[in-house]
Fold:
Amino acid sequence: MAKLFVGGLPWATTSDELNQLFSQAGAVTSAVVISDKMTGRSKGFGFVEMSDED
Structure:
């Protein structure tokens, strides 16, 4: 499994959109956009986990 850092995301990007984008390259295990705990706004980065395909 590979965990990827994704930076420079538009503030409006959702975890679902990130998942859809990376699913074009392979099987996505999880995708999450990191948000501020106080405001709930995106911090402009996230993480995607891709499963290894042998």
User: Anything to note?
Assistant: The longest strand covers residues 42-50. The two ends are 11 Å apart (CA to CA). The mean pLDDT is 94. The chain has one helix and three strands.
